[in-house]
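In response to reviewer comment 3 from the previous cycle, which asked for concrete evidence that the modeling workflow produces usable outputs, we include below a single protein chain processed end to end. The sequence was submitted unchanged, and the resulting structure tokens are shown without manual editing.
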Amino acid sequence: MAMLVGGIFTMFDISASGLRAERARMNVHANNLANINTLNGEDGEPYRRRLVYFREGAPEITGSSKLGVSVDREEKDYDTAFGLKFDPGHPNADEDGYVRLPNVQAPVEMVDMMMASRAFEANLTTMDTAKQIHSGALRIIA
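The workflow returned the following structure tokens.
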């Protein structure tokens, strides 16, 4: 016989952690898209794409380091190179006439954002299913 881990609302807590993590991921991709043309970032370089990394567990929501998911960290993408555009008259052009462009690619960001959106929707569906299970159990008891 399987043992129920956590309390009666554990399914809601796990889905809520997924909703929070995917919302953070969507926000980062939206920010990347918003800065696709930012040539002078905070450090004077073109904008660098940000990436979100998740970790197992969401103790602040589920009370467990094994249940749910949470954002581990957000980092700049140093693996993807800046783009180059030949524009010798541009104020940001180097001595060879090339302008360094942000390492953000709209199609990549859109696909990542769609994946985050679908994961968000899956967590909403899980919450709805958990609600139906709880309602059914309450009808049986009552």
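Helices lie at 10-34, 59-62, 106-141. We consider this sufficient to address the reviewer's concern, and the full set will be provided in the supplementary archive.
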